[in-house]
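Need fresh eyes. Consider my entry:
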Amino acid sequence: MSGGGASAAPFTGGAAATDAVRAKVVPELLAAFSDGVTELDTPFDIPQVQVAPGRLAAVARWLKERGFNVLVDVGGVDYLPRTPRFEVVYHLLALPQLWRLRLRVPVEEASPVVPTVSDLWPSATHAEREVWDLFGIRFEGHPELTRILMPSDWEGHPLRKDYPLQGPRAGFPAHPADRNRYRAPKLPGDPPGAKGAAGATKGGN
């Protein structure tokens, strides 16, 4: 096959894109929001900034207009017993420049509320519902902030660090049979006092 066709445009991401975000986008963002944005050190390649909850909506809109047209992900973190306890983390991408930026929004336990960004990036709609479901962080202005993984009548938020490991079952009285529920029964020929291996099946090697 001949090579007479036009060649693909060269890759312009990687270190060059990261340097552009650090040298240009982040300083401009800090200048525009000196009262609510702080640059954070990171051991990773993606630059990151901390954003005050009250400034998130304005910062998000500024970044969208600056070219960050893709919201890759929204996640929650519980840093119990640290104060503030929670963070909401946003990963943004600008195409075609391949700029990447991480936003970290601290959230107080007493009032775990941040504004939604689903009006700017529709991909946030379901991601914010997941954070609400698992961490109990509310997204003000969300069009349908309902559970997405747990049943609608579920009590509590399972990814909080103080959530019982056994869920609601942790509040029920234990029964003697529970101790050996996941152990295989002893087999003929087992030495005296031996117990079945946890998770094993009867007749296994």
Remarks:
- The chain is about 20% helix and 20% strand.
- Confidence is low (pLDDT under 50) at residues 199-205.
